Amino acid sequence: MRRDPVASTYARRLLVIAVTEYDDGSPAQQQAFRTGVSAQVTIVEGWWADPGLDDGRRFAPARPKQLRDLRDLREFLLKEELAEVDDDEALVVYVTGHGLAPANSPQHFLRLPDSYEDRPLSTAFPTAELIATVLDSRATHVLVMVDSCFSGRLETELKANLKALRERRRSLGSLVVLAAGNDESRPRLGQFTNLLRAAHEHCADRANGYAGSHLSWQDWKGIVGAVFDAKTMADVHEIWPTPSATVQRAHQQPSPCLPNPGYAAVEPVLGASLSQVGWTRTELDTYWISRASGQPGAGGPGWYFTGRAELVKRVLAFLVGTENVLVVTGEAGSGKSVLLARMVTLSDARFRADPHYGPLVADIPEELDVPVGSVDAAVLARNSNPDELAQTLYEALGGSPSVFGTAHTARTRTAPRGPAKLLDEGPVVALCRLVGELALLRGQPLTLVVDGIDEARNPTRVITDLLRPLSQLRMNTGGRPAVRLLLGVRSPREYTTAAEGEAQRPSTSTPTAPSTDLLGLLIRATHSGNLIRTDDVEATRGDIAAYVRALLRAPYEGQGGAEEEQPGYPGPDRAQPQLRYQHRSLAAAVAEEVSPSFLDARIASERLRSMRVLPSPDDPPWRRTLREGTEALLREDLGEVARWHDTPAEHLMAVLRTSAFGQGAGLPWADIWPAAVRALCLTPVADPDAVIRQVMGSRLNGYLTTAVEDERTVYRPIHERISETLRYAPQCSVSGIRTRTRTRRSVSPRSRSPLRTRNSYGLS
């Protein structure tokens, strides 16, 4: 299910009630107890009051100065005014110390240093009193942790004593009380916080993929199940609230009381109007900015694409012209998304103002610059259906998601006599209405960018059910288009016959899309007369050479794994004329062999950067590998990383290949990715998790990208062409990657290879 954003809180408080100064036992035993309790408090404060947490998640800690008797504790609680906590505050309370459970009473008491065990009513503190106070306050989000012997008996006590609690709060799933065991449990010192420490480490581990800023209580239960060790940890019980369907649903949403230790906040670079709703900020910036700039990885900022001037001018002319649909197409890796992403990023004021990119933007020639505000919303269609894309665009344009309710679900189930209101508020209808209203208000069409149409779950329906009605929208005044669509879709093109070992050349005429082709359907559905192809070999060669030269000059920092930092590599070519000449020659050779694939150029450049000795530009084996394309480059990378890590290449290949089979936004790590590696690899893998970590810490990491789905980090190949290459491999080995030279890249109906054909539309 899609989670709601975590509830905002004006303030967050952590109350620590830790009793340490007992007179029991020898002085050494007393000191050991004080040390143990202090360690427990350190773990609790290290989770909720960690200075490394951002201001919106960190809790302000409060502790009594001393806790000798009942008066000390009551004065502290009165000072904290727990009964007056506001509804926009989050409250976490940690209680630890010896517990009392009188045999003739159902109550639980917190024993203080001056308490008498035979007089608990007047000298010990009734723990349920504190819990009742915070649960009866106005605070919407409360967590109470009772780390004390016999604390499990509080479950019965609370159910009996809280009958007067307001019904609305009795069923509130965001009020949670945890106890260190059942009625008779006597947890040893540190056992409760051993569980907390293990849970904290579990969340912080990248493999487990908790990506949201906060955890849900459902997450918490799964984490406890994963880390629990009965020998060293308390058997923590959730004693409030009473389980119910309402509580279960509430526990699926993130809680302000559970900040995620593994969350890494990232400041946005693109404005909200260009965001893909439901993605993390990191994923948005990674997709659009990395493609616009040609970054080889998620390292420091850099801008490596500088060409495609004629194509850029054609798109800029469209943005100010009268046509309402422009289709950008080309074969895989030819820079289609680069062109679209350039428009998305450079039109955004926040991106242009970013100090990392400001100087680069300032150097763009005026005739190639993108006017600020040219793009109103940009989305990636990958793994989406028409309703999801429509809702994403609707929210990106400022619409409220609450208008949908269950409209798009009811639309397929409502009988003709059913309520029409739900049908009228479906995502596509709502989006069309909003676009029309905004266009009329502004007096000019809105510009929407939709990339990756061929990667949608049902690209045909995206075209017919969403893009076609959008393209038909008109403003009331003069029938002008209300929307300007800039669309990206992959399509093959014909190649002429060439001698064995020579690069194929595209036919001079632009291929006509057959009736079953997705590109043809898109053109017919939107009545688009505009078409830009990005895969002309001759036109891309110079730009690819410039791209490779820029990548070869890029610094190492953040560019890849440890095996790339080899001492024999001569480094950047500044002030080295001979090296600059060598880079120029190598870049020209790469461009000659891989054009029109910028993707292959990037992979080839990263391989060059990892070599101890650069090859000769005329080296036949090296050029043959370039000609063979993505598959051969991947095979070479696998072989080198395998030798560097002393790991079977088949195991590394299994890690990459399984990521290509992940459904949705990608494959989660945790238990699923290792299990998939074991299942798909034909040779035994003793520790698949370790192999995954080797891939993520090596140059092979450059073949993968991340996304967030259901608040978990997932992994997938960085490009659909790489996904197809990995899925095509008939067995889990390096030799299983089928190599194909450019002479085999014909996509004519009779010679289309299985790898190049994904469905009946002949997508590549």
Descriptive tags:
alpha/beta, disordered C terminus, six-stranded mixed beta sheet, single chain
Major sheet: 6 strands, mixed
What is the C-alpha radius of gyration, as a whole number of Å? Answer: 31 Å
Share in β-strands: 5-15%
Q: Can you give the helix content as a percent range?
A: 25-40%
Mean pLDDT: 80
**Tally of strands:** 21
Distance between the termini: 31 Å
Description:
With 764 residues, the protein is an alpha/beta fold. The protein is built from 29 helices and 21 strands. The longest helix is centred in the first third of the chain and has 22 residues, at 27-48. It is elongated and about 95 Å long.
Secondary structure layout plus pairing:
Layout lengths: L10 E8 L8 H22 L11 E3 L7 H11 L8 E8 L2 E2 L8 E2 L9 H4 L1 E2 H9 L5 E7 L6 H8 L5 H4 L4 E5 L11 H14 L9 E3 H11 L9 E4 L4 H6 L3 E6 L21 H13 L15 H12 L4 E6 L5 H11 L2 H5 L4 H5 L14 E4 L5 H11 L10 H4 L9 H5 L2 H16 L3 E6 L7 H13 L11 E8 L4 E2 L8 E2 L11 H9 L3 E4 L3 H17 L23 H18 L3 H13 L9 H9 L1 H16 L3 H12 L6 E2 L3 H9 L7 H9 L7 E6 L2 E6 L2 H9 L36
Parallel strand pairs: 1-2, 1-3, 3-7, 7-8, 12-15, 12-18, 13-14, 14-15
Antiparallel strand pairs: 4-5, 5-6, 8-10, 9-11, 16-17, 19-21, 20-21
In summary, what is this structure?
This protein is an alpha/beta fold and 764 residues long.
